[in-house]
Amino acid sequence: MSKPPARAPALRPDGFLVALFVAVALGLLYPGPGADRGVLHMPTVTGVGISLIFFLYGAALAPRRLAAGTRNWRLHLFTQLTTFAVFPLLGIVVVMLVRRLVPLDLLTGFFYLCAQSSTISSSVALTAVAKGNVPGAVFNATLSGLLGMFLTPALAGVMAHTSGHELPLAKAIVDIVTKLLLPFAAGQLSRPVLAAFLERYRGWVSYVDRGVIVLIVYAAFCQSTQAGVWSAQGAAVIALVAALTALLLVTAIGLTVRLARALGLSREDEIAAVFCGSTKSLANGVSIARVLFANHAALGMLVLPLMVYHPLQLIVCTWLARRYAART
């Protein structure tokens, strides 16, 4: 008697992606608790979470690997050029293609999005999930944030003909040092005590990265909903913004991957370059916009592409990070 054919293994949903979609749904339907002034105090919670993952990165990284990350000049140059040269060029192309279909303020907003620095915490966390070059991602994401304080206003000024105002550079440097570099340094100092423990429970520690990403997604959607992004504009405008930002994100990721492979970057460096080069910082972008466009009546329209891009990049890049990890 012939044996019955073997059953195909059941497809189980990815718990991480399910958590992301739940976070999106909650942010859209019940934004109050997760907004900046909500009862969950998400700015504090995510701030602590970001510092925690940087502490864990520092504790898990051998100093020799960190030093090697700072010396990888090809990765650093490629990533910064992608962020502040290739991406703005993509923005110019988008503006030229849709200038007759999109209001002028939205066009300025799209270019402003393209001129943004990389998001620091998410790009590093995604690189870790994808098993990429975490030291290189830490270095490039931090450098991008610092350079963005100068290059973003300069690039946006060229597009919008806006005069430069004094930027809160000192506060930005203090935030980067206190929230990222100091926890990272503290983790390095704790390596003699924690390194073996973290290696033994590496799988459990990875949940911290993923948990922080879920919280950032939830907070981003809560804040967007609370600010009226989804109701202040007509459905057609929001749909057009979503379509253009999605196209921009996919194009940026695809172009970064192709250029990284053409330059012969390693798989780990490619991962770091993709996530540091294609993600954009909502926090830095909104704060700089409030300075550059303080007297602009349509400030909400100017930052709309960035506010749509930010949660979208987290969802797409999280899926991509899982794909990278599965292929390792």
What does this structure look like?
This protein is mostly helical. The chain has a single domain (39-321), classed as Na+/H+ antiporter like fold (Up-down Bundle), CATH 1.20.1530.20. The chain is built from 15 helices and no strands. The protein has helices spanning 15-29, 42-60, 63-71, 73-98, 104-114, 120-129, 134-160, 169-189, 191-200, 202-226, 229-232, 235-262, 267-278, 282-292, 299-327. α6 packs parallel to α15 (299-327) and α14 packs antiparallel against α15 (299-327). The chain is globular.
List the SSEs and their pairings.
Blueprint: H1 15-29, H2 42-60, H3 63-71, H4 73-98, H5 104-114, H6 120-129, H7 134-160, H8 169-189, H9 191-200, H10 202-226, H11 229-232, H12 235-262, H13 267-278, H14 282-292, H15 299-327
Helix pairs in contact: 1-10, 1-15, 2-8, 2-9, 2-10, 3-7, 4-5, 4-7, 4-12, 4-13, 5-15, 6-7, 6-10, 6-13, 6-15, 7-8, 7-13, 10-15, 12-13, 12-15, 14-15
Shape call: globular
Order of H and E elements: HHHHHHHHHHHHHHH
Largest pleated sheet: none
Report how far apart the termini are. Answer: 41 Å
Task: Tell me the Rg in angstroms.
Answer: 20 Å
Low-confidence stretches: 5-11, 162-167
CATH class: Mainly Alpha
Helical amount among residues, as a percent range? Answer: over 70%
SSE class: mainly alpha
Kindly report the average pLDDT value.
80
Overall number of strands: 0
How large is the count of helical segments?
15
CATH fold node name: Na+/H+ antiporter like fold
Count of folded domains: 1
In CATH, the architecture is: Up-down Bundle
Q: What percentage of amino acids are in beta strands?
A: under 5%
